[in-house]
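Issue 218. Parser rejects a valid record. Input:
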Amino acid sequence: MRLTHEANKIIIKQGDQSDTIYLVEEGELLVFVVDGSKVSPVATIGPGEMIGEMAFFAGTHRAAYVMTKTPTTLMEIDSETIKDQIPDWLFKMTKNVVDRIHHLDKVIAKSGIKRKKVDSVKPLSIEEQRSILDLI
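Output the parser choked on:
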């Protein structure tokens, strides 16, 4: 199913159940986490990228919020469609890869390794954080 959203709309809420994956067809999205009144950007997502796949295959709740930065068109893929379309062995293999990525993320975080030459998402201004908190 195709969904269209105007700018500044929350698509995914941190902590929600993960039962859908989205493919971005058009537009730009912001991935962010909220800690109290602080909004920390994590990534910017654009056309051809997916959102929600990590939590979906790991069977966990959403780890972050996702909001549209511009008018956006998404292809929504629900769990039933995924399970009907993907062979069981491929589903299990994808889950295994996602579990390994989560494990490696934890190992990297514990070791204190910093990534070099990685595009970073610029911090949000106080005004931008306030406007996002108003949306939540």
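Fixed in the parser; the record now loads. Strands lie at 2-5, 10-12, 20-26, 29-35, 38-45, 50-51, 65-68, 72-78.
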